[in-house]
Design goal:
It is a single chain. This protein is of the alpha+beta class. The chain contains three helices and eight strands. An eight-stranded mixed beta sheet has the order 2-3-4-1-5-8-7-6. β3 and β4 form a beta hairpin. It is globular, with a radius of gyration of 14 Å. The structure holds zinc ion (ZN). Zinc ion binds next to β1 and β5.
Amino acid sequence: MNKIEHLGIAVKDLEAANKLYSVLLNTKPYKQEAVESEGVITSFFKMGESKIELLAATNPDSPIAKFIEKRGEGIHHIAFDVTDIDAEISRLQAEGFELINKTSKPGADNKLIAFLHPKSTGGVLVELCMERK
Ligand code: ZN
C-alpha cells in the first residue's frame, strides 16, 4: 500500500456538498463523474497528495442510497493506492480478508478498484485503487 489515495464521503445532495466542500477546502472540484454500474455520481477534490471523493446515489437501489439510509451521510470508505491491484487482492485473500470484488473493476477517476468487506476490516469499507495505465 503506497498511501491513502482518497476518502470517500457519502452525500445526499451532490450540488450542495460540492458547494460546502469548495468553501471548506478552498478549492473547486476538479472532476465530476458518474459510475453507472455503481449507481453513483462522484465529485473529486484535490489537496496536494490527497483527494476527497464525494459520492451521491443516482438511484434508490444504489449502495450509496442504502448506506445513507442506514447510517446517514458521512465517511463511506478509505481508499489505498496500490502498485499492483491483482497482487494485493491475492495477498489479502491469502491473509484471510474478505473481498467484495475478487477481481479488480473500473472505478471513477481512471482507476481500477476493489473493495474489502468491512466485516473483515474492523468496520471500515476499504477500497484498493490503482491508476489505469
Ligand atoms: Zn473511492
